[in-house]
Amino acid sequence: MGDSDRERLRETFTQDAELYERARPGYPVAMFDDLAEVACIGSGCGVLEIGCGTGQATVPLAEWGCRIVAVELGAAMAEIARRKLSRFHQAEVVVSSFEDWPLPERPFDVVLSATAFHWIDPYVRVDKSANAMRVGGTLATINTHHIAGGSDAFFREVQECYERFDSKTPKGITLPHSSHVLRDSAELDDSERFGPVRFFRYERDIEYTTEQYLDLLRTYSGHRDLAPDVLSGLLDCIGTLIDTRHGSHVTKRYLTELRVAHRVK
Ligand SMILES: C[S@@+](CC[C@H](N)C(=O)[O-])C[C@H]1O[C@@H](n2cnc3c(N)ncnc32)[C@H](O)[C@@H]1O
């Protein structure tokens, strides 16, 4: 993705922050347990979160007792995160791009970014994250992948709606099996600042009614970026497909991936 696409698309989430908060599924509890095993997560630990959104990963970290500074680009997203974090006095949300945010002098123990690291300038994110933490600190990034499974027939058939309404859709693409999703550590391997990279993976099936599924799609930057008539035709097509052929319910399989590395220099 080029710089201008990234900068345009990353601003779409805050256009309807309440929808994002309602429709996005949050993260598996087991992921925070694993994170706590490999990183300083708990009372007194300093966490910098990049792109906290509405706080879907931030609240569980605050519940673990972490001292958190969360840097979020979208004002409306940050407002919801602040509301959800209001009972935690050790959590602060700052509205800024991570690239422009001046690092505080006191280093963090953990820098975490949940479904947001790929929105940060690739020339900045690894080094600036390293600079934000003490040596031995942890960089934890979380990625969400859409994989084969759940309502397989629906996901095969829905491709026709995308090909019909969005001319940029490649022909005949299918969701990958989880074993085909590559563990991508290149940017950390290439940097001399971090040691060996570890991955943890979690698969979940989530069932949606037609309206819930359409709301979820309305939160994706690629969908939000479509022209209004294209989006509305696409969502009508998908809604009709779910209602007429899939009993008004679909099950979507998610692969959540936690990637962890420790700062060595
Ligand atoms: C897909 S959302 C993830 C939000 C949240 N971490 C979650 O897991 O639900 C990506 C978030 O990153 C934020 N973001 C994108 N680019 C950013 C940047 N350069 N600096 C700070 N936040 C950024 C967006 O505003 C959005 O809230």
UniProtKB/TrEMBL annotation:
<dbReference type="GO" id="GO:0032259">
    <property type="term" value="P:methylation"/>
</dbReference>
<protein>
    <submittedName>
        <fullName>Class I SAM-dependent methyltransferase</fullName>
    </submittedName>
</protein>
<keyword id="KW-0489">Methyltransferase</keyword>
<dbReference type="InterPro" id="IPR029063">
    <property type="entry name" value="SAM-dependent_MTases_sf"/>
</dbReference>
<dbReference type="Pfam" id="PF13649">
    <property type="entry name" value="Methyltransf_25"/>
</dbReference>
<feature type="domain" description="Methyltransferase">
    <location>
        <begin position="47"/>
        <end position="126"/>
    </location>
</feature>
<keyword id="KW-0808">Transferase</keyword>
<dbReference type="GO" id="GO:0008168">
    <property type="term" value="F:methyltransferase activity"/>
</dbReference>
<dbReference type="InterPro" id="IPR051052">
    <property type="entry name" value="Diverse_substrate_MTase"/>
</dbReference>
<dbReference type="InterPro" id="IPR041698">
    <property type="entry name" value="Methyltransf_25"/>
</dbReference>
